[in-house]
Amino acid sequence: MSRVMPGSVKHSEPTESDEGQNAQPNIRPIPQEKEENLNIPDGGYGWVVVICQLLITATTWGVNGSFGVFLDHYLTTNAFPGTSKIAYAFIGGLSISQITLVAPLVTFSARILGIRPTLCVGIVFETASLIAASYASKTWHLIVTQGLLFGWGCSFLYIGTYGIIPQWFSTKNGVATGIAASGSGLGGLIFSLGARKMISQLGLPWTFRIIAIATGVVNSICMALMRHRNMEIQPRQHAFDYRLLKSVKFILILIWICCSGLGYTVVLFSLPNNAINIGATAQQAATVGAMANLGMAIGRPVVGYFSDRVGRINMSAIASILSAIFALCLWTSGTSYGVLIAFAILGGLVFGSFWPMTGPVLVDVFGTRMLPTTLSVSWTLVSIPTAFAEAIALTLRRDGKSAYLFVQVFAGCMFLAATIALVILRFWPLVNQYGKRAKVNQSA
């Protein structure tokens, strides 16, 4: 049986406004007793699902997390002459934005075709995009392959399976999701170091091809082993439910996700070139990016573990404020290689934790059945800021050893804004109740 964690908000249906107005007559909220009797096993075969999700995350977000190495290669070697820095940065941002932008299409595919056909589409897109990127001779080739098509492949794989873990876990949902999300850090660590080595020894084309083969094989195995509980849970798989935008609680969650996404993308993609800027070698720059991914691999399960004990919203707020502190205090002091390594590891522990915590927070607020719908809307809208995150970072970059100062402050402010949104969400029941009392007093 599911339970409401400390620091969570009792979930409610988005068709009922937060101002206490009556729901529309033809829309009925989910009965609370059904949400409490979903008979979630809290383990069992769910741990196989966790491992599969970890591997899928490693071969999607992990590969994306290594883009900083590719970006540094493009910038330092002038791989495609005449291409601006903004255009190069747009490739990585486009990839991340596509993962979330096509979430409604993935949700629709999962509902109509099923999970395995959806994953099969993702495998084809991802593998084909990387192989096609190996033959790129112009910048727009990379934008279409490494950016657009790769993002679509990642979306069908990652978004297609993200909502399955909560079907298997209730009290351990946070730690299970955190373990699965650590695949982003592990994959980023492996692919960052591997890509750097392969680019220097085998060249860019074969680097793309080897990654394509590796991800295709791993994801095919995961597709065969992945198992959902849709028959038991009966999730609501709406591609885009606009009524969620009437919910203040959902808007606050959306602000948290978007601001965190901006900060996360800016940090992850900027670190390798930031290292080059302060005098580090190419190998040292790759190590900085790898250390950030190592921090995420360690930090996400830890954040998930404590979220099951102190509350998902509480722990997400703690991770967000720590991200802001590390960015504003430690990263801004990163004018030496050692300080940059320290920030990469410490910041990595927390600055990407919003990805694994989005699902558990949405479950706490809106319920398990509403998770596919709330995720679909969330991922779609977060695609807008993440698409331009690194382009914004390169625009803010200046010359000299303090070239990334404005970038660092920007990232820290985004994490700070995310924290404020979560604090308001945490105390929203009190704020809402106070507002109602004020209205009653005014009418009296």
Automatic annotation (TrEMBL):
Q: Does the keyword Signal apply?
A: no
User: Where in this protein does the record put region Disordered?
Assistant: 1-30
InterPro entries xref list? MFS, MFS_dom, MFS_trans_sf, Proton-linked_MCT
Give the signal peptide range: none
Main localization category: membrane
Pfam families xrefs: MFS_1
Q: Which Gene3D superfamilies match?
A: MFS general substrate transporter like domains (1.20.1250.20)
Q: Which residues form the Major facilitator superfamily (MFS) profile domain?
A: 249-444
Query: Which UniProt keywords are present, listed alphabetically?
Result: Membrane, Transmembrane, Transmembrane helix
> Which PROSITE patterns has this protein been placed in?
MFS
Q: Does the keyword Transmembrane apply?
A: yes
Membrane topology field: Multi-pass membrane protein
One MF term in the entry's GO annotations: transmembrane transporter activity
The record's comment on protein family reads: Belongs to the major facilitator superfamily. Monocarboxylate porter (TC 2.A.1.13) family.
Q: What is this protein called?
A: Major facilitator superfamily (MFS) profile domain-containing protein
Q: Give the organism, scientific name.
A: Clonostachys byssicola
